[in-house]
């Protein structure tokens, strides 16, 4: 391995094995905890368990998954969830960052307040929002279930049947449970999103905004044509993070809705969890895990691609 | 000179800004406050139809501050408070949450964070200071790993955990879990560390090297003290992340005495389905340490989060 | 330098390989999972490390058990406090009885996760317990080869002849082998607040609907039940199953196929839809998280079809006449039963049908690969002894004794709940919910999702389609 201290050049002979030893433990641990399990999951997805051991079954697990109605349903739920969760979080996060990026008093106080949800674990977040809307006993149940306020029968977030879909079997409009899930997830992710956007806004030189204002640009035009293009890389990174958060968001579903009402908040990662640890079908769970990983990558690459297109404009 | 960074120069008054921020702040803090209120109710006020926000109503008035029936019942039950004449304060805490789970999580979070700081510091330093073959590839690969959802890996990790338990390796669930946490939070931390090292000027190291220090000595004696604030930020970030992690602890730990606190809390929710004041109290007890940690070291958290994500 | 780097690379690669070898999947497919995984151990490990330190001193062997209950949990108000207290009291007794020979070690497990964990552990050849508390179908375990066949051993034991045959049936796999020893039966019964049904709990569907309407006018619910898809679809075997079987419905065709779209099931589902649509049951029925229980606890719902053993989890109750039972322990329902405020009943049956009820065993099983099988045998024999049996059935089983002679034992003869339950069961047709389905854990969420859809989400004309789709999906895997 040829190693070279970047700027020091030839001034002094450096034992070039140091970076190797510095990096070795990290690479090893990532290999054991991240790469090997992924490979193992991929292998598992092609096996089936018999009392005698694992046997190779080819793509049977994938075929069973694609045939299952719950899988198809949960793909729809995932799309609805991811799109609305990311859109709402980005919108609110951008707004919060713009508001915080002003020379006003109490910014520190607002920052602390807005960032509290970030240190609350997902399982507690789910429980907290559940306690707000639990039928009959939740904090807001009295208001929500009042037929006078919400005719004809009041709203029961955790139990109301989902509305009949507009587009074939695609689960839109979402159930009230799904809306609650989106709100709770947004609540949890808003701090992180707002912070990243705020940090990148603060890196923008003031002159740019000042000069464009002199040129007669209004607030919206400044946002659309000055701010957004500059902070676009940050927005992309933030969206990556939100995709990952959304894709991994099982804990909040477990404590918030348990997948209900009905199956309306079962996104594919929840399905993976219930396939593996509820129905004890690890091969199918592995197959689904592989699909989620691939979809994740496609989403990330697609976002990158779109960004390039946007930058080229 | 006037410095206004907002795109809305005079269109929006400060009042409106404050109002909007207060509104967003309220949205962020409201669920926590409501959980706090629930945790202070007694059981008879939990299951009221229709529900009451404050347990302060009297037969004649809907709110009377003198009639409030606040109660610490939830906390007493969640902590398993039990009178004991021999104990220091006259009672012992017998609940699993304090006795086992909080302690475990503190242990896991500290161990994992220390390891992550050490490894990420080393890796970040190497990435920041050296150019070697595969530098860019490795750096990208480490980031790319995070693109695989953790849940996918958990299927494999779960089977690995079982194999480890049956093998003669001296690794129990605790060691394995800490290892998994390290692997989970290492990629991001390595990037954060690289950013922090990039920001440190090299002059001092170079001086140390010229003075005859070995690179390793200069790393320990010169670089580490300067990098300490960044490392603390990584420590805090990892600590809070491990504290709050649920799925890995839930699926990888088999023994009750090794459960981390979020797993314990989940069990606790199942055990007290109707005693919502107890569940709420447990949530508060478990969330409080990290909330305090965050409020104390807010800017450290921010620097780590920004460094890890934007510069990456 | 170059050589050194190469050497280190090679070394680290070997290290990784070594680590991975330890984590490699179970032995060759031909090997039975029961075999000790000695062959897969890394050769470098010293054999001494494999010896549990407890074995060394005086040959006291551990009997490791997995119960839903936790002896260490002192919280008197926890749902599972009764079982927890039982373990705390009984473990020293066992250790005393087998002093110098056996030591009872319990590992508490979450009730909805322990099955998956055991099956996976046994498949991987991992550290399985010697005794497993089993309270659902044995079919999952049979299919995965997780449990030891106890047929031969059990037949040689003195208590075998006294075991109820239907209880034995619940522990028998589809291959006719006995995979667990049933200690108690947990039938699904209906808990009834007598104050809400002064003329007795209805015995016909029409009467039920009439009384429900009357209760609704008073501002009360006739019934609450677990109707959510939460908790792994376990609603499929709770109250819903009681209602469906009371219409003569079932989930299978008796030959291992799922069969949901039957006239009986349809009639039952239409009945449940009517209950929901007319508001005879509270909203919490579908909320999950066992929140439906609250309406039963404060008697705003007059009846609650659920597992008999759940009375141990009930507390802080208010009777219809306003009388409070609020010690916060299982004494609450017990006192309510003694006062006649609560009674057990069977569900009203459709015309010409017998009231239905699901039943599951509370049993002990020995996993394949258990380290101390002989200790497990001793454990079961000790629990089955006349001194220990009643306490186990009462506190852990929470159901009806499976030993036929035990019903006359003073513990049970004086137990108002047990006696009422025995009567209810004798008047009903009780059978396990999964019938001949060989993959209950897979069937459970499928059935529950379909039932939920049929009850709550689709129009009347789509019910059959929903049911047919679920059964076809399951049967495709046969």
Features of the shown structure:
heterotrimer; B: 312 residues; mainly alpha; MetI-like fold; two-stranded antiparallel sheet; 69% helix; globular; C: 478 residues; alpha/beta; D-Maltodextrin-Binding Protein, domain 2; 2 domains; ten-stranded mixed beta sheet; two-stranded antiparallel ribbon; 18 helices; 40% helix; 13% strand
Q: What percentage of amino acids of chain C are in beta strands?
A: 5-15%
- Using the coordinates shown, work out and report the CATH topology of the domain at 99-262 and 288-310 in chain B: MetI-like fold
Could you name the CATH homologous superfamily of the largest domain in chain C? Answer: Periplasmic binding protein-like II
N- and C-termini, Cα separation of chain B: 34 Å
What does this structure look like?
The complex is a heterotrimer of chains A (313), B (312) and C (478). By secondary structure, chain A is mostly helical. Chain A has helices spanning 18-44, 60-67, 69-100, 107-119, 122-133, 141-144, 176-202, 206-214, 219-248, 251-256, 268-278, 282-312, and strands spanning 3-5, 47-50, 53-56. Chain A has two domains: 18-56, no CATH class; 60-312, MetI-like (MetI-like fold). Chain A has twelve helices and three strands. Chain A is globular and about 75 Å long. Chain B has 312 residues and is mainly alpha-helical. Chain B has a domain at 99-262 and 288-310: MetI-like fold (Orthogonal Bundle). In chain B, helix 4 packs across helix 7. Chain B has a two-stranded antiparallel ribbon with strand order 1-2. Chain C folds into two domains: 53-185 and 360-431, 3-Layer(aba) Sandwich (D-Maltodextrin-Binding Protein, domain 2), CATH 3.40.190; 187-358 and 432-476, Periplasmic binding protein-like II (D-Maltodextrin-Binding Protein, domain 2, 3-Layer(aba) Sandwich), CATH 3.40.190.10. In chain C, strands 1, 2, 3, 4, 5, 6, 9, 10, 11 and 12 form a ten-stranded mixed beta sheet that branches. At the A-C interface, helix 1, strand 3 and helix 11 of A face helix 1, helix 3, helix 4, helix 8 and helix 17 of C. Strand 1 (3-5) of chain A pairs antiparallel with strand 3 (130-132) of chain B.
């Amino acid at each position: 391995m040829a190693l070279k201290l970047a700027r020091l050049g030839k001034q002094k002979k450096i034992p070039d094995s140091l970076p190797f030893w510095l990096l070795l433990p990290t690479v090893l641990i990532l290999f054991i905890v991240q790469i090997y399990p992924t490979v193992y999951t991929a292998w598992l997805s092609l096996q089936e368990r018999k009392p005698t051991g694992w046997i190779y079954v080819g793509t049977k697990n994938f075929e069973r998954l694609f045939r299952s109605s719950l899988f198809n349903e949960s793909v729809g739920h995932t799309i609805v969830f991811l799109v609305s969760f990311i859109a709402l979080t980005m919108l609110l996060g951008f707004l919060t960052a713009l508001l915080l990026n002003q020379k006003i008093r109490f910014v520190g106080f607002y920052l602390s307040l807005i960032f509290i949800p970030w240190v609350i674990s997902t399982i507690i977040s789910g429980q907290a929002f559940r306690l707000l809307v639990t039928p009959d006993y939740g904090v807001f149940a009295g208001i929500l279930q009042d037929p006078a306020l919400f005719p004809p029968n009041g709203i029961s977030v955790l139990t109301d049947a989902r509305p009949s879909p507009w587009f074939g079997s695609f689960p839109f409009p979402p159930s009230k449970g799904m809306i609650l899930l989106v709100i709770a997830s947004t609540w949890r992710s808003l701090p992180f999103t707002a912070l990243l956007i705020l940090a990148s806004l603060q890196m923008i030189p003031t002159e740019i905004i000042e000069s464009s204002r002199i040129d007669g640009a209004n607030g919206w035009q400044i946002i659309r044509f000055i701010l957004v293009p500059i902070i676009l890389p940050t927005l992309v990174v933030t969206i990556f993070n939100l995709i990952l958060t959304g894709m991994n968001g099982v804990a909040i579903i477990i404590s918030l809705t348990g997948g209900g009402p009905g199956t309306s908040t079962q996104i594919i990662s929840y399905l993976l969890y219930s396939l593996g640890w509820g129905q004890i079908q690890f091969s199918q769970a592995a197959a689904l895990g592989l699909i989620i990983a691939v979809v994740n990558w496609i989403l990330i690459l697609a976002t990158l691609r779109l960004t390039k297109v946007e930058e080229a404009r | 000179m006037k410095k206004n960074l907002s795109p809305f120069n005079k269109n929006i008054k400060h009042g409106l800004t404050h109002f909007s921020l207060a509104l967003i702040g309220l949205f962020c803090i409201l669920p926590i406050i409501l959980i706090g209120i629930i945790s202070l109710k007694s059981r008879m006020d939990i299951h009221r139809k229709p529900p009451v926000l404050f347990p302060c109503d009297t037969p004649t008035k809907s709110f009377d501050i003198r009639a409030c029936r606040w109660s610490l019942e939830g906390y007493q039950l969640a902590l398993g408070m039990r009178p004991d004449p021999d104990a220091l304060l006259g009672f012992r805490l017998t609940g699993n949450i304090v006795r086992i789970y909080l302690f475990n999580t503190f242990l896991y979070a500290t161990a994992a964070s220390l390891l992550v700081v050490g490894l990420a510091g080393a890796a970040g330093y190497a990435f920041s200071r050296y150019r070697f073959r595969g530098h860019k590839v490795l750096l990208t690969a480490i980031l790319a790993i995070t693109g695989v959802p953790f849940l996918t890996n958990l299927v494999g990790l779960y089977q690995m955990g079982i194999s480890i338990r049956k093998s003669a390796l001296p690794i129990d669930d605790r060691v394995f879990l800490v290892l998994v946490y390290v692997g989970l939070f290492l990629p991001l931390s390595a990037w954060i560390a690289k950013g922090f090292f990039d920001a440190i000027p090299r002059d001092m190291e170079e001086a140390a090297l010229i003075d005859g220090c070995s690179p390793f000595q200069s790393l320990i004696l010169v670089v580490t003290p300067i990098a300490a604030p960044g490392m603390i930020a990584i420590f805090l970030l990892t600590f809070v992340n491990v504290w709050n992690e649920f799925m890995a602890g839930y699926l990888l730990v088999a023994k009750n005495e090794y459960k981390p606190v979020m797993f314990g809390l989940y069990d606790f929710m199942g055990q007290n389905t109707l005693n919502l004041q107890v569940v709420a109290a447990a949530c508060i007890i478990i969330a409080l340490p990290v909330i305090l940690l965050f409020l104390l070291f807010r800017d450290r958290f921010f620097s780590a989060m920004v460094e890890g994500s934007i510069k990456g | 330098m170059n050589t050194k780097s190469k050497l280190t690379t090679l070394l680290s690669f070997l290290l990784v390989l070594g680590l991975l070898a330890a984590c490699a999947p179970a032995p060759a497919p031909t090997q039975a999972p029961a075999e000790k995984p000695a062959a897969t151990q890394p050769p470098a490990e010293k054999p001494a490390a494999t010896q549990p330190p407890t074995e060394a001193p005086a040959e006291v062997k551990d009997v490791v058990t997995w119960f839903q209950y936790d002896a260490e949990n002192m919280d008197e108000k926890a749902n599972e406090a009764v079982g927890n207290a039982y373990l705390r009291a009984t473990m020293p007794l066992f250790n005393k009885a087998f002093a110098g020979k056996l030591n009872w070690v319990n590992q508490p497990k979450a009730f909805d996760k322990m099955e998956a964990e055991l099956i996976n552990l046994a498949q991987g050849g991992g550290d399985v317990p010697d005794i497993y508390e089993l309270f659902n179908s044995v079919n999952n375990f049979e299919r995965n080869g997780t449990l030891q066949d106890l047929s031969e051993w059990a037949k040689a034991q003195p208590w075998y002849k006294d075991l109820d045959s239907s209880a034995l049936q619940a522990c028998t796999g589809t291959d006719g082998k006995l995979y667990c020893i049933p200690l108690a039966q947990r039938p699904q019964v209906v808990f009834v607040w007598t104050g809400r049904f002064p003329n007795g709990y209805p015995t016909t569907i029409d009467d039920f609907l009439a009384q429900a309407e009357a209760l609704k006018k008073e501002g009360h619910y006739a019934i609450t039940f677990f109707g959510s898809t939460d908790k792994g679809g376990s609603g499929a075997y709770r109250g819903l199953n009681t209602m469906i079987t009371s219409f003569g419905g079932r989930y299978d065709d008796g030959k291992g196929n799922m069969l949901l779209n039957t006239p009986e099931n349809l009639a039952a589902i239409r009945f449940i839809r009517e209950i929901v649509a007319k508001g005879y049951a509270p909203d919490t029925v579908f909320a999950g998280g066992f929140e439906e229980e609250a309406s039963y606890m404060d008697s705003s719902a007059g009846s609650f079809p659920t597992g008999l053993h759940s009375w141990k989890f009930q507390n802080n109750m208010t009777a219809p006449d306003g009388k409070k039972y609020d010690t916060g322990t299982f004494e609450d329902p017990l006192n309510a039963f003694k006062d006649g405020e609560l009674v057990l009943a069977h569900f009203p049956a459709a015309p010409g049908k017998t009231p239905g009820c699901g039943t599951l065993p509370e049993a002990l099983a020995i996993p394949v690969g258990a380290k101390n099988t002989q200790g497990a045998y001793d454990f079961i024999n000790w629990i089955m002894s006349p001194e220990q049996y009643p306490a186990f059935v009462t506190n852990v089983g929470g159901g009806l004794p499976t030993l036929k002679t035990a019903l006359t034992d003073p513990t049970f003869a004086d137990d108002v709940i047990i006696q009422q339950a025995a009567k209810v069961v004798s008047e009903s047709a009780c059978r396990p919910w999964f019938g001949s389905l060989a993959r209950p854990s897979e069937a459970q969420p499928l059935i529950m999702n379909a039932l939920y859809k049929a009850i709550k989400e689709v129009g009347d004309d789509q019910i059959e389609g929903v049911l047919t789709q679920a059964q076809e999906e399951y049967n495709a895997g046969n």
